[in-house]
UniProtKB/TrEMBL annotation:
Gene Ontology MF annotations: electron transfer activity; metal ion binding
InterPro entries per the UniProt record, alphabetical: Cupredoxin (IPR008972), Phytocyanin-like (IPR039391), Phytocyanin_dom (IPR003245), Plantacyanin (IPR041844)
PROSITE patterns: PHYTOCYANIN
Hydrolase found in the keyword field: no
Keywords: Copper, Disulfide bond, Metal-binding, Signal
The protein, known as: Plantacyanin
GO-annotated cellular components: plasma membrane
Signal peptide range: 1-30
Iron-sulfur listed as a keyword: no
Record domain Phytocyanin: where: 31-126
Domain of life: Eukaryota
Length: 126
């Protein structure tokens, strides 16, 4: 028996192809994380990344009072010493969205004493 354009096997193949495409799109979506969860970006946030799996392209949302805090993307030395290396990017809107790059991403608040009080995170993205 001859099969025409609308045969069942073509429909099934098309369905499987569309399903695969949808799965790939779902896998490719970046996750969005609010740093500190409901508490936001505040003191003692240093342990917040624990147990989470981050990927390059995921977005961190830092929510905080812009008159009391900021977010500074620093290198490993700036993170461990709680210092702001020259050229570091400073965010200060109170609702900052930062896309993770592959590797370890370091963030601190550079208001006096805040980083030392645990207002810093190191996030490793695969």
């Amino acid at each position: 028996m001859a099969q025409g354009r609308g045969s069942a096997s073509h429909v099934v193949a098309l369905g499987i192809a569309l399903l695969c495409l949808l799965l790939l799109c779902e896998i490719g979506e970046a996750a969005v994380y609010t740093v500190g969860d409901s508490k936001g970006w505040t003191f003692n946030t240093v342990g917040w990344p624990g147990g989470k799996r981050f990927r390059a392209g995921d977005v961190l949302v830092f929510k905080y009072s812009s008159t009391a805090h900021n977010v500074v993307a620093v290198n490993a030395a700036g993170y461990s010493r709680c210092t702001t290396p020259r050229g570091s990017r400073v965010y200060k809107t109170g609702n900052d969205r930062i896309r993770l790059r592959k590797g370890t991403n370091y963030f601190i608040c550079n208001f006096v004493g805040h980083c030392q009080a645990g207002m810093k995170i190191a996030v490793t993205a695969a």
